Amino acid sequence: MSAPEPKQILFVDDDPAILGGLRVRLHRFDSRWAMYFADSGAAAIDELERCDYDLIIADVRMPGMDGIELLRTVSERWPSTIRVALSGYAGEKQVARLVPYAHQYLNKPCPSSQLEELITRCLRLHELLPDARLRALAGSVRTLPVTIRAHTELQAALSQESAGIAAVTGIVASDTALTAKTLQLANSEFFRLSRRISNVEQAVGHLGLSVMRALAASTEVFWQGAEHESITLRLDELQQHARTVAAAARSLARDTPHGDDAWAGP
């Protein structure tokens, strides 16, 4: 039996020292991963036009085309490519801009073991959808369908100076999309504690109300389908189905390191 084709991974950073360090640190994976290194967003686009990449890991703060704009372009033109943001600084506005386009988030500097584990996990998830059309469809989703009621209540609660964690948690927990995105962010490397967070109240408390305000205010993160009446009418039913599937997935993955991922999304 022939060996499987190596996975195509593109690293993008304007710092030559960082790219050189990645080459050295990940050299032992050469037989499994075909790794390429671009020093700008424009160079990354050239590479993506040349080759189909399974995964892109891009620094956020780059001159010219920054990492957020690069990942946005990748999500539009190459939606099946898994997108990872790498940053040494994660302000609230930056996070809100990144959320629709990045599947995962890493802090700089990033330990080798952490980077290797994330790449392995992303590629494993990628393999769960062998059909390229399905991968492209899944990768093109940038907004989540939040019910109008939940989004309105969340914005109203967060607009009050006396907003409390408990009230915000109750609203987030009532909506599948709000729950998934909040847990995904709380467990990302931008905000991560030394342990996984699977409790919504802990996630909201860890992120803080200022981050939740930035998240709720982002029109690119959450989609409300008021103009699509047939979809809006079924949203509660679809969300209940999503909660059932997520609970089943987490139960199946309970004894693995990825139980929380089954609930929070890729």
Tags for this entry?
12% strand; 2 domains; two-stranded parallel sheet; alpha/beta; 5-stranded parallel sheet; globular; 266 residues; Rossmann fold; 13 helices; Hypothetical protein af1432
Output the radius of gyration. 19 Å
CATH class of the largest domain: Alpha Beta
How many domains would you count in the coordinates?
2
Overall morphology: globular
What is the helix/strand order?
Answer: EHEHEHEHEHHEHHHHHEHH
Main sheet specs = 5 strands, parallel
Kindly report the CATH topology of the largest domain: Rossmann fold
DSSP strand (E) fraction?
5-15%
Biggest sheet, spatial arrangement of strands: 2-1-3-4-5
Q: Kindly report how far apart the N and C termini lie.
A: 31 Å
Low-confidence stretches: 226-233
Q: In terms of structural class, how would the helical and strand content be classed?
A: alpha/beta
- Count up the helices: 13
CATH superfamily of the largest domain: Response regulator
Number of DSSP E strands: 7
User: What fraction, in percent, of the residue positions are helical?
Assistant: 40-55%
Mean pLDDT: 80
